[in-house]
Design brief:
Layout lengths: L1 H8 L2 H67 L2 H24 L5 H22 L8 H88 L15 H170 L4 H147 L5
Helix pairs in contact: 2-3, 2-4, 2-5, 4-5, 5-6, 6-7
């Protein structure tokens, strides 16, 4: 019983607030659980991202190692400082990638990483200790031995990188599977929390609606009894201070107030009946004086109305002049807008012309730089041709020396057979070098020919760009002259428009003065008409009062009959 009283003391809004808070708590609980799963999923996703980054960086350092491996034989053959710089660049990139990768690897994978670093250091030792200082003295056997050793290191490094990448991919897939499981759990929690919230809402809403409906039915029944005239019924009983309790108290108070009011109205109706009879007699006397005053005021209204009509005619004529001035002013404003549009178009054209000139100058600079670069390329191609000629001459001399060595070995007999084999190999190598040099010379000649053609075309383009630049400069000057003329025309049109605005304002002031006179005349006419109407209304009101007094007497009699129907 105590809990029922406490619940009934809570306002309906408070009850719905409690239900809402229960639903919110359930919702927050589901959010907390969902957040926990999402936090785990976030950790798994972070792990997946790290593993993918490890896989990518492992692949990068293996690729950098492979590039360094390929540069060693190229440097031995060409002895080019560019290849040395490339090797240093790849070494620097390898160090940066390796440092980043080491910070992300767990301890169990550092063994593989350290082996890769060891192989890289050994490759650097081969290159900087054995190749770079002795590049001119390395023979074929040493080259093959070095190639074999570095190839073994490369194969092992590629295998280690593949193993590290496979581990990272496997770990990433595992973390991704865990994330998917957590997402499924989140879906289940969201579905369950939504269903629970709906069930709780429906339960409490049904419970409250049924309870409120029962009490409202009692209140409706009591209201219908009061409306039918039964004022001597028992009061409603409801324990509580919520809206239903307040409504029950209001119904009880209304019944009591109606009983008291009916008793008072019954006493007042007799007094009203007596006063209405006196009012009927007085209204007859007032009506006679009002009719005489109304006749006098109607004569005054006729003269004032004639003056008002003349003022209205003058105002209409002045308004026609004002409308014509407004039309002219509108055309002048359109002309101002059109001149502004022309000025904007001219200004935009001038700006675009300046931008075009600026762009043509940039193109001119690009053409100049391109011509210089092509000339530089042509000079370097010529240098390559000269170097190829020197190498070809050396190869021919080597071939000739090998031939002489073979002849001398043949003269020496059995003692010179070993030397003859070496001379034959040297001769073959010299012939291969000669063939390669001829191919290089052919390619270099083609490059030189294409470079000459490009230089010729760039020179032609450069001349055309100069012509275009001069033409745009001339057009820009013409646009500036046009822009000045358009701006001068726009200023003159604006001055004309300002004059029309002043004329319009003066006409408007004249029109307002005439309208003021017309309005004053109309107000005077309206005042007399209002006085006349007031007198007529007063006469009608007196007649109405007389009639109402008679009706009031009849209504008092009917009201007494209605009061007698209530059961007090």
């Amino acid at each position: 019983m105590l809990s029922k009283i406490r619940w009934n003391n809570i306002k309906i809004g408070g009850k719905y607030t409690i239900i809402f808070l229960i639903i919110v708590v359930a919702f927050l609980l589901s959010i907390l659980i969902t957040y926990s799963f999402l936090n785990n999923s976030s950790k798994y996703m972070d792990s997946t991202i790290i593993k993918n980054k490890i896989s990518s960086e492992a692949e990068d350092i293996v690729a950098l190692y492979h590039e360094k491996y390929l540069l060693i034989p190229e440097y031995i053959i060409l002895s080019d400082d560019g290849k040395l710089n490339d090797y240093l660049y790849y070494s620097k990139e390898f160090t940066v990638k390796a440092k980043s990768l080491k910070q992300q690897l767990p301890k169990e994978q550092l063994t593989i990483f350290n082996k890769i670093i060891k192989n890289n250091n050994q490759l650097d030792q081969y290159f900087f200790s054995m190749v770079v200082p002795n590049v001119q003295q390395i023979n074929v056997n040493e080259f093959e031995r070095l190639q074999k050793e570095t190839n073994a290191l490369k194969v092992e490094t590629v295998a280690l990188g593949k193993e590290l990448k496979e581990w990272a991919t496997s770990s990433s897939n595992s973390a991704l599977n865990s994330t998917q499981k957590d997402l499924k759990k989140i879906n289940l929690v969201l579905v369950f929390s939504a269903a629970a919230s709906i069930f709780i809402s429906l339960f409490f809403i049904f419970f409250m609606s049924r309870k409120i409906r029962n009490h409202l039915n009692k209140i409706v029944e009591r209201s219908e009894e009061i409306a039918s005239g039964k004022l001597n019924v028992d009061e409603l009983t409801y324990v509580g201070t919520d809206e239903i309790g307040q409504l029950s108290k209001s119904i009880n108070h209304m019944g009591k107030s109606l009983r008291d009011m009916i008793a008072q109205v019954s006493g007042l109706s007799t007094e009203v009946d007596n006063q209405s009879k006196l009012l009927f007699t007085a209204s007859r006397a007032v009506n006679s004086g009002s009719e005489q005053v109304a006749i006098t005021i109607e004569d005054l209204a006729t003269g004032v109305g004639s003056q008002s009509e003349n003022a209205v005619n003058i105002s209409q004529n002045t308004q026609g002049l004002t409308d014509q001035i407004l039309a002219v002013n509108a055309h002048s404003e359109e002309l101002v807008q059109f001149s502004n549009q022309v000025l904007n178009v001219s200004t935009n054209g001038n700006r675009q012309m300046r931008e075009s000139l600026k762009q043509m100058k940039l193109i001119n600079n690009v053409f100049q730089i391109s011509v210089i670069n092509v000339k530089t390329l042509e000079e370097r191609t010529q240098s390559i041709t000269e170097i190829v000629s020197v190498i070809k001459s050396i190869a021919d001399q080597t071939n000739l020396l090998a031939l002489n060595a073979s002849i001398e070995a043949a003269r020496a007999g059995d003692a010179g057979k070993g030397f003859a084999v070496v001379a034959l190999e040297v001769r073959k190598l010299a012939e291969e070098v000669t063939n390669s040099i001829e191919n290089i010379a052919s390619i270099t000649f083609s490059i030189k020919k294409e470079t000459t053609n490009i230089a010729s075309e760039l020179n032609s383009g450069y001349l055309e760009v100069n012509k275009g630049t001069k033409q745009i400069e001339l057009s820009g000057t013409q646009f500036m002259n046009i822009n000045d003329k358009v701006e001068e025309m726009s200023n003159r049109i604006k001055n004309i428009s300002a004059v029309f605005i002043e004329i319009q304002q003066s006409s408007q002031e004249i029109n307002e003065a005439i309208e003021y006179v017309a309005a004053a005349s109309e107000e005077a006419a309206a005042g007399t008409e209002e006085i006349t109407a007031t007198m007529h209304e007063q006469s009608q009101a007196v007649n109405h009062i007389s009639s109402s007094a008679k009706k009031l007497t009849d209504m008092v009699e009917r009201m007494n009959a209605m009061i007698n129907k209530f059961q007090l």
